[in-house]
Every structure is written in C-alpha cells, then in structure tokens.
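Predict structure. Chain length: 276.
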Amino acid sequence: MNHDLASVIEKIKKIKFPFATLAIITFATVIYILNSNGNPYIYPISKLAIYGVSNVNPIIGGIMFSFTHLGLKHLMGNMLVLGILGTILEQRMKSWKVFTIFLMSGWFAGVVYTYINPNVWVLGSSAAICGLIGAGLLVDFKRTILGVVLGLYMIPIVAYPTADWIVVNFYNHQEKAIHTNVEKIIHYQEQLKNATKQEKPKIEEKINRTYQQTKVIIQKVKKVEKGMQKEAVTPAAGLIHVLGGVFGLILTLIIDRDAINYFKRDLNGILRTGKP
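Prediction complete.
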C-alpha cells in the first residue's frame, strides 16, 4: 500500500507544469472579462469584430480570434478541453512549441476558412485546439484520444451546466434588482405627494437616480437574452476544425523531431497489445 502511494506521488512529481496552456487560458479569460463588463455574454457581438478573423482582418483577427469568445459557455467549454489537451502535450513537448502550434493552427485555419467564406468572421479557440489534437496524435496518441474523449464527456456535464448556472443566477439577480427598483420608485412617488417644497428636489433626484439604474439593469438583461439567442443559432463550422487539426499535425512534424518517434513507439505498442 505504501509502495503504491509512493509510486503515485513520484508520478505526480514528474508532471511538468503546463505553462503555455495556463498562459492561453489566462489570456482568453482576460479578453473575455475586459469585453463582457461583468455580463455572461458579450453584446453587441460587433464590438468583437476587431478580434474576429475575416478576409479583411487576417493579421490581428487571425491571431486574436483564438483567444476570444462570445459567451461564458463558449469560453468554459473550450478552456476545459484546452486544459486537458494542453497539459498532455506539455509532458512531451516544450511549452513554446505547444503555444506556437496553438497560435499558428488557429491562424491558418481562420485565414483559409474566411478566404473560402468571405462574408463571415469567426471567434473561438476550437480550431486552434484542433491543432493541438493534431499534434497530440503524433506525440502522445493514446493520451490525446483519452483527453479528447474526456473533454467531450465533461463539457456537457461540467462546463456547460456551470456556465448555465452562472447565467441563470446572473439573470435572476438582475430581474430581482429591477423589481426592487420599481418598488423604490413607487415608494418615492408616494413620498413626493406629501413632501414639502424643500423635500421634493431630493425625492425627485432619488427617483431619477433609481430610474437610471433600472435602465442600466434592463440593458444587462437584454444582453443576456440576445446573447443566448445568438449562441443558440451560431453554427460550428466543421471545415475550420479540420484545417486546424491538419495544420497542427504538419507543423508538429516540422518543429518537433521527436514527434514521429513518439508516434512510431505508440503505434508499435498498439499493434503489439491490440489496445490503444
């Protein structure tokens, strides 16, 4: 028992810290926070146009779109899978290589896809993550397959429910605030009827201030509603993911000499045992 525990501890000690993965997750989260202003969705989506890759914004957009997400569910789902796959890759690759594959796979996929579809612009890190999957199939085939399966399994049972819980609580909190402010305004209006000439300006100021606060809250609620509608009708383009995955695989062969050796070793192990 003690030997088994010591073996587990020793394996944990050998795990490399995923610097690139953590940096990408942090940067994507910061981009979301700065643009959302505390709202679960970024709306109007047009404010993110500078971050989206398109045929008229291939440089800045091509780099930034992989770090930019429309809503909390979009962000959390992608970051969950990225966290799993990035950590797996950084056990066998240097952090700068993982970051390069992520960045360049996203850029290539985004630029090519929007060249083929010139009337669209794209957001999200999924194409870049597919680049990491392409790399992972070479450098750690078995763990990458396991990581993809685990990520896809955990998205609907962890990431999405957590995001939905945050959105629902945010929405309910805003609705409650609107109801409270309406009651305040009614109360102030009743006070105004019996107020003296000196008291009226102060009460009117309270009414106006509460009214303005309510307008701001209503706008937040509308942003959540419109964000949910937009999220529900936004399609996931399969082609951009294929482009990212293929480019990630090819780029890995170029920048990592050990990749093909890792792949051969994993393949021989599978052929020998008959198990992935």
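Summary: The domain at 2-168+235-273 is CATH 1.20.1540.10 (Rhomboid-like fold).
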